[in-house]
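Pasting as-is:
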Amino acid sequence: MDATARPLRVPPEMGPYAEKHGLFQLLQNMVEKLLIHKPDDPIEFMITHLKQDNDDVPRICIVGPPASGKTTIAMWLCKQLDAIRVSPETLLLEELLELTKEARAYKEREQEIPNALWTNLIQERLSNVDCIKRGWVLEGFPENREQAWMLQSAGIAPRHVVVLYAPDVVLIERNLGKRVDPFTEEVYHTTFDWPSDPLVQQRLVEPEGVSEQETSKKLLDYHRNFPGIFQTFHKILKSINADQPCADVFSQILTYVQTRHRSAAPFTPRILFCGPPGSGKSLQAALIAQKYGIVNICCGQLLKEAVADKTKLGELVKPYFDNGCPVPDNIVLKILADRLNRLDCMTSGWVLHGFPRDLDQAEQLERIRMIPNRVFFLNLPYESIMERLAQRRIDPATGERYHITYKPAPSPDIQARLRQNPKDLEGKIEMHLEIYYRNIKDLEEFYENAFYVNADQDPHVVFEYIESCIIKPLPQKS
């Protein structure tokens, strides 16, 4: 038999290992760098990139109109993230950069510094070891679309762009009262943020260009140029209202810059739903599987199919079904592992519900390398569980399912022949709930990065929340 004709078998360890060590994202980052920089020696370039180990350092742009608080926010971010602050002002103070002298010459002649020179100066600064290792916060640049395009052409790709905004009247008022400490570069305000130290008060100076007329002109230029910046960075850009307490502004920005954008790197979903009976696990699994084309696996249904297909393992399961006894874990795991190791699950991903039910089963699932990368606990109050399950009925003639409150029978004839599944009797429900609550704490501790979902709401609302968590990047483990 031709060995090349055998079906492809992807080792089950591959996906979890690659995700654990960030291999897919690492490859994605290297491909991006290669396409941006187009090095003559790609192999040597990638080796250097790996040695730098800086894929996760901050790369942030803070832009906004005059007096929106860019400098303060940039300084606070750098202190919080241990990053390097880079701005047009700091670049002109750099003594070690070769292009600084040329830029200063334009400034001394009161000429506008060319965009190309600014870009080259920024590129030179960001190529220094401190920026490579610690990351950077670029403040006040780009100011227009041409500058944004030049940054991209130079291979400078911010991960997050923050745009501060506020009403023009507020910005003009702020700018008129702005004062700067020439020693620390801290920004103060005569009304809102006056320093308590008399020595600091004495050395504060009024920066250039803060008159009402000059500020209005700068605001007009900013509003004219901002659409170009937005179009360039709209996928990684977030606007923050700067007309609120500075601490609140900073908190919102810090939260944003610490998020990870959705990656284009390969991702195979392995989703696990846990929850009490009636919490909607089956429905949510079906919705997720239908939308994303992944394999929907209900453990109970899997066992029934094994019995119906009269497989060897199914023959072992049948006596337990006939006697109403739970199937031993070792048999369940063999059937489950066989299904999860098939090509459709390995390539498209899977959503599992009905297993594990306790800590020992969860540990066994991990031992066979079936490790979910999204775990959801669907929470539902006791009263809602009883209302959902105890009022379920089935039409034995058609197999149609009804609910006394939410989906009553359409006619008296159908109503008369409805039957209740023995498992939906209150006593049975309470027994299953007692087992669930006995084990749930251990499962929650085992799956420490799980998401918790309020299942006591419209199923489509629940689905939207679950979907948002699935497309988020995987949690980073320390």
